[in-house]
Amino acid sequence: MHLTKEEERLLAGEGGEALRKAMEILLTLGEMNNAERLIPITSAQVSGVSYKTIGDAGLEFLRDMAESGAKVKVLTTLNPAGAPVEAAHELGFPEEFIRKQREILRAYESMGILVSCTCTPYYVGNLPRFGEHIAWAESSSVIYANSVIGARTNRESAISALAAALVGKVPEYGLHLSENRQGSFRVEIKTKLESSTDYAALGYYVGRNYKGIPVFAGASPQGEDLKALGAALATGAISMFHFAGATPEYREEKLEKIEVGEEELREAWEELNTCEEPDIVTIGCPHASLKEVLAVAKLNPRREVWIFTSRQVKELAERYIKNENIKIIADTCMVVAPLEELGIKCIGVNSAKAAFYSTNLSKISVRFDSLENLLREE
Ligand code: F3S
Q1: DSSP 156
Q2: Given this model, what pLDDT does residue 89 score?
Q3: CATH number of the domain that 110 lies in?
Q4: CA 344 to ligand 1 center in whole angstroms
Q5: Pair 310, 117: CB distance under 8 Å
Q6: Closest CA to 371 of 243, 199, 217
Q7: Across residues 275-291, what is the average pLDDT?
């Protein structure tokens, strides 16, 4: 890889140990992927925030980085943590967990990272423009940025996103290059998609069975449908999609076609459903938009529902929502928070990503259904 004089100096440790480590990470990543150079980024989204997922080893690493005095060079936001920053005690999270979680957040904050704790940074001010190069970790925001916004990012790991934020650059390969952003196969939708849960089931089916960049046609999604579709696709190895009439880099291309109809969607629904009667309904994977929070309120639920979202959306929504069954929870989500330790065994979700990871990571069973169906019952 070709390095500038300045990059060589950082690699030699002239900018301090944290920057030397960060350069080494970027260089290794670039060389593994045949990148020729590093390119500047305008923003970063860092994952690896929940104590549940990074544990003591992750905390130790962050402590070292923070103590070295390193600071990020670009706008950098943070993924959800394992517990709400303020209401963790109220919800019954274990004391030790809260303490370590707070230490993780302090370490990130001391590096100049905004403790936004959301996986939808594009709803809270980290909104890149079309064509900008960024370094985002967190698969659902990566696929949204590439597909819906038209910004350019590979699916960074927690460590490479942090390294990129500190250096302000990423290796140029993969989805940073125009030639790698074209569609690989066309998905003809042969059934009516009625809710974002249907889009999630579609994404789950395609993500589990195919690789590459799918080009969807045959439906008219809203923004939140695209968010649900992308998050579900990303449970497989997909980091970008196109959608005829809905995404900015869609082009008419001659591609191999597959059809997805009722049968394929049913297959996805059946695979994701592992229990019948949820203890609680949890909405907001990826974090809920204001529109989605208001949609829950409009259904006036008579059963307990937890909505996971950003602090900004929570603050605004709470001014208007008076239903006691609705709890709006910021900073965390149903997957990275240790719900299993709160005695919860079955949750209702309308997100394929939440269904997949709750079952496989948290060992919590899931009822996967549309918002209306989940909230209709008592
Ligand atoms: Fe976000 Fe948690 Fe889902 S981080 S994408 S709400 S698993």
Answers
A1: B
A2: 75
A3: 3.30.499.10
A4: 18
A5: yes
A6: 199
A7: 96
Do 79 and 173 sit in the same domain of this protein?
A: yes
Helix, strand, coil % over all residues of the chain, rounded to 5:
40, 15, 40
The vertex-281 CA angle with 240 and 193, nearest 5°, equals 45
Residue 286: CB within 6 Å of ligand 1? Answer: yes
Domain count of the chain?
Answer: 3
Residue 255 tokens read as 């591609």
- Co-location of 172 and 205 in the same domain: no
Atom number of ligand 1 nearest to Cα 336: 2
Q: Is the CB of 330 under 6 A from ligand 1?
A: no
Indicate which atom in ligand 1 lies nearest the CA of residue 308: 6
Beta-strand runs (E) in 236-279: 242-243, 256-260
| Digit-coded pLDDT (tens) for 58-70 | 999 999 999 989 9
When pLDDT is averaged across residues 178-196 and rounded to a whole number, the result is 97
Distance 190 CA to ligand 1 centre (A): 29
First to last CA, the chain: 60
**347 and 359 Cβ atoms separated by less than 8 Å:** no
Residues 261, 302, single domain; the answer is no
The finding on whether 97 has its CB within 6 A of some atom of ligand 1 is no
Longest CA pairwise span in the chain (Å): 65
pTM, two decimal places: 0.96
Q: Which of 370, 372, 365, 376 has its CA nearest to residue 278?
A: 365
Ligand 1 pocket member 80 (CB < 6 A): yes
Instruction: Calculate how far, in angstroms, residue 4's C-alpha sits from the geometric centre of ligand 1.
Output: 37
CA distances from 366 to 42, 353, 356 (A): 38, 11, 9
CA-nearest residue, atom 3 of ligand 1: 285
pLDDT, tens only, 4-45:
999 999 999 999 999 999 999 999 999 999 999 999 999 999
CA distance 192 to 13: 57
Which of these, 129, 130, 133, 112, lies nearest to 41 by C-alpha position? 133
Q: Could you tell me if residue 353 is left (phi over 0), alpha (psi between -120 and 50 degrees) or otherwise beta? A: alpha
- Check whether residue 147 and residue 207 sit in a common domain: no
Mean pLDDT of 144-149: 98
Distance 51 CA to ligand 1 centre (A): 15
Q: What residue owns the CA closest to ligand 1's atom 7?
A: 335
Q: In angstroms, rounded to a whole number, what is the distance separating the alpha carbons of residues 184 and 97?
A: 43
